[in-house]
Amino acid sequence: MFETAVDDDLITRNPCRIKGAGKESAAERRIATVAQVDALADAIGIRWRLMVYLGAYGPMRPEELAGLRRRDVDIDNLVIHVRVAEPERTNGKRAPGPTKSDAGARVGVLPAFLQKEVKRHLDWFAEKGPDGLVFVGEKGAAFRRTSFGRKWRRARAAAGLPDGFRFYDLRHTGHTLSTRSGATLRDTMVRAGQSSEKAALIYQHSGEDRQREVAAGLEDLVLAERAKNLF
């Protein structure tokens, strides 16, 4: 269990194989605060802010966001169906295909505070029709890694995050807050789309009802952190 969690970046080290099990690793994960995630979303612009929030609180990988379609998003039930991944090759072309593993294909339950963000984005920016891409560039084409990367670097600097902070690191914020809200390692692995197929079989019993509980706990923590920043 711990080995597969390490492989998918859910925990830093495996306490079952190191001396002094349970001690924190010296090499800490880069974890953005709730305020920093909000600052990133504000700085990157209204077209891309939902991508930041889904990266953190989905939590979704960049290639999964690239392949997200309108039909994958159920606003009323706060559910996103992660079905495919579309990584970008070095030649700039997309390579549509399955998710990182069978476990990567999943149903993600979003915290309720994202409902307004999702609805606005679909109304304003997503392609039309059920197969329309959720995230497209300013000219209406599938977004490119290079152009998004420039926006990301500017937003990262504005949010006061270090140069080494990657979009992928947003997932660690979601993992950390979910754990603080009471999610088990099993819950977190399912929510993250754990890459190990063996782990997927072990953890498949963290179903949608339980994921709704985790999303509700995540919602409470994010709103509490935002309230602190008002004073």
UniProtKB/TrEMBL annotation:
Keywords: DNA recombination
PROSITE patterns: TYR_RECOMBINASE
Keyword Isomerase in record: no
Residue ranges constituting the Tyr recombinase domain according to the UniProt record: 27-216
Residue ranges of the TM segments: none
GO BP terms: DNA integration; DNA recombination
One GO MF term attached to the UniProt entry: DNA binding
Top-level taxon of origin: Bacteria
PANTHER family in the record: PHAGE INTEGRASE-RELATED (PTHR30349), PROPHAGE INTEGRASE INTD-RELATED (PTHR30349:SF64)
Name of the protein this chain belongs to: Putative prophage phiRv2 integrase
Species this chain originates from: Streptomyces jeddahensis
Phylogenetic classification of the source organism: Bacteria, Bacillati, Actinomycetota, Actinomycetes, Kitasatosporales
